[in-house]
UniProtKB/TrEMBL annotation:
Residues 48-141 form the Methyltransferase domain. GO terms for molecular function: methyltransferase activity. It comes from Kineococcus radiotolerans. Residues 196-217 are annotated as: Disordered. InterPro entries: Methyltransf_25 (IPR041698), SAM-dependent_MTases_sf (IPR029063). This is SAM-dependent methyltransferase.
């Protein structure tokens, strides 16, 4: 699990500090398996990935033929994602923008808007950002949100010790909070998936992630 400086003054400082504290990949570079499964039936079009990090999901979508805009608050993350896209030969299908999503948002409508594990210890009203994301979905498009729901106790204890509070609603609770008009949206997926994490000592722990895909009529 990456280390965060919880004394950071804003989102950019928090996430830039995390990405710039090491060298190379912070994440694996592979797409999130739940995203791979959840978008498999969709026809490629335009996509927006919120909190794209180093670009694992962006690259997967681009390889499938999507034209993808990746967004992150960290300059280091965006630079790495753009470099990885160029190395993978999908640079012409990808573009990257830096946004603090609590302050600014990409312009336009998209056939798919994704937010994978867009959690933050501070500086982000996640529900408000996801409501804004829903307004960026074109008619006939989809909103996909992946999020932690149950984290291993060791991780939760560490967050508590550092004074961090992270809201981890279930997919159903998140849908209710978004309160999108039922006449305009259908629930394509709403489920919990099991996740196993491996600690630095090789020990494993179980958790749960939520998957919510809403399709706009």
């Amino acid at each position: 699990m990456p280390n965060f400086d919880l004394t950071a003054r804003d989102a950019r400082e928090l996430w830039e500090g995390m990405y710039s504290s090491g060298h190379g990949h912070v994440w694996s570079g592979r797409p999130n398996p739940a995203l791979v499964d959840a978008i498999a039936d969709l026809t490629p079009g335009t996509a927006l990935d919120l909190g794209c990090g180093e670009g694992g999901d962006v690259l997967h979508l681009a390889r499938l033929g999507w034209r993808v805009t990746g967004v992150d608050v960290s300059d280091t993350a965006i630079a790495r994602a753009a470099a990885h896209a160029a190395e993978a030969g999908v640079g012409d299908l990808t573009r990257f923008e830096r946004h603090d999503l609590g302050q600014s948002f990409p312009a336009g409508l998209f056939d798919l808007v994704t937010a994978s594990f867009l959690h933050s210890f501070a500086f982000l009203d996640r529900t408000a950002v996801l409501a804004r994301a829903a307004r960026s979905v074109a008619p006939g498009g989809s909103l996909l949100v992946l999020g932690h729901h149950v984290v291993p106790e060791e991780q939760a204890a560490r967050w508590r010790a550092e004074g961090a509070e992270v809201d981890l609603p279930s997919p159903g609770e998140l849908r209710r909070r978004l309160a999108l008009p039922e006449a305009e949206w259908t629930v394509a997926r709403e489920l919990l998936v099991e996740r196993t994490t491996t600690g630095e000592d090789g020990s494993t722990a179980a958790g749960q992630d939520g998957v919510l895909r809403l399709d706009r009529r």
